[in-house]
Every structure is written in C-alpha cells, then in structure tokens.
Amino acid sequence: MAIDLLVAFENEPPALDFIWPGFLAGTVGALVAPGATGKSFWALEAAMSVACGAAVDGKAAGGDLVGLAPERRGRVIYFAGEDPEIALVGRIHSIGKHLDPQARQAIADNLTVEPIMGKRLNVMDKEHLARVIKFCGNARLIVLDTLSRIHCLDENSNGDMAQLVATLEHIAANTGASVLYLHHVSKGSAREGQTDQQQAARGASALIDNARWCGFVAKMTEDEAKCLSDRSFDRQPIYNDRRRLFVRFGVSKQNYSVTPVDHWYLQHDGGVLLPVELMEAKKEGVLRTVKGRDDERW
Hints:
This protein is an alpha/beta fold. Helix content is about 30%, strand content about 25%. The chain has nine helices and 17 strands.
C-alpha cells in the first residue's frame, strides 16, 4: 500500500524500533570478521541480550553481557551452520557462568539455538525458505551463522548477492524479525588490517550495500597493543603477548542512526567476550631489567 503523503506531512512519525542502537527492526544487517576472531561468540551473546532484554519487570536482568542495551526483549532464532552441537553447548555453558538465574530463565524462554551444520539449508530453495519463515514466525531477531552455509549462489556476483539479500528481506518482512547474517572478510582486507572497513566483507559489494546495518569484530592490532592499557594502576601497555585476548566491536555502516563508538571486549575462559575499559597507555619510558641488562621499553 502506498504511503499517504499528506498524513506523513502533517503527523509526527512513529518512533523507530531498534533491535539494538542503529539496527532497525525488520531490516537485514551483517556482522563481518576474519575467521576465529570471536564473531560467533559475539553474535550468540548479542542474541541472548535481545532474548533477555535490558530489563525484566523493571529490574535489570543481567543478560546483556555485550552492552548492547536492547530496547525490548523478544524471541530470537539462532541458526548455527559452522559448529557441531557439542561445541555450541560448550559455548552456552561458558556464557551461562556469567549470567544470573533470572537472565538464564529469560534467555531459555526466548532463544532457540538451532544447529544446521550438515543439513544443507538453502534459503533460495522455495521449500526451505517457507520452512524458515514458518519456524521463525513472530521472532524479533534471526541470526544466520554464517552466510555461506545458507545458499548455493556465487558470492562474487553482485546480481546473485542482491537476490540473496532480497530473500533475507523477504524473511524479515514475513516474520517481522530483523535478520543478522555473519560473514567473513576478504583475504586482502585481513592482510592489510582493514577488517573494520565497510568494504572489508568477502565477495560482491551488494552484500553490504544492500544491508541496512553492518558491524565488525576485529582482533587488537600490534600498534593498538602498544598504545592501550587495561591496567589503571600503572597504565602499562598490553603488548603483543596479550593482545590476542582483546577484540573490538564497531559499526561500519548504519542507515538509521548516528554511528556509535567502538567497544572493546576481553576474551575470558571458554571464549566468552566481556566488556573491558581500555585507556591510553603510559608514554614515558619505563626502565626494566631484561636478561640481566637495563632496557628502556616504551
């Protein structure tokens, strides 16, 4: 049905409904990162945040581990295509150690994690598509981990990828849910350290151009490890030996809001990502003894 322009001119528009800040309900978004960066852990924790909500009955639920502050909770479907069930159970157990009982119950009530590894899901197949839409009816968020596991098209073809994103939009329109797909970055982007750029995603540009939101997860670089510290008492740099434990989440494309600041996370036991406050490392030279000699380290 066409928009009534006079009504739109003369009346205040309804407030936009965001899954989390910037990710509009009923749209398609992407989360891109190199392999083994932590994007699946971030996406699973984000799914739990939406399933739990920022609060339950006016009380903090303690389920928003990644700090997304979702406006309201709802049903979430997580299709896990890369990992076997035993690995997923281990991740869920590790995350559960950081959740209070109220949050665990809310998440159990609203989140469905569906292992699809080896099941050859193809959303471009009409029967598969119909089953996905039926299964995800009335969901608030659908997570597809990862994109390459749910289709058989050419990811380097802009025509094919525009058609794929349009199919994901069809799922969103028929379920009322936002659809978040996980995707890998290109080898060139990873090699050049540009995984936080909008153009970093592997394959055709239509994958990101046609999505309404794009986030990224990136490992801490060597330069960042020299300049940042997680130690407020002495502000010693993180350095290369610990940088693998830190990942940065940010937004590289956002159509409906101001782009937020990046968030840093520290990887805990089992791979769980929890927010960490980083500060500028101390810049003065600190005299240390290394292998029996004095060495000035910056």
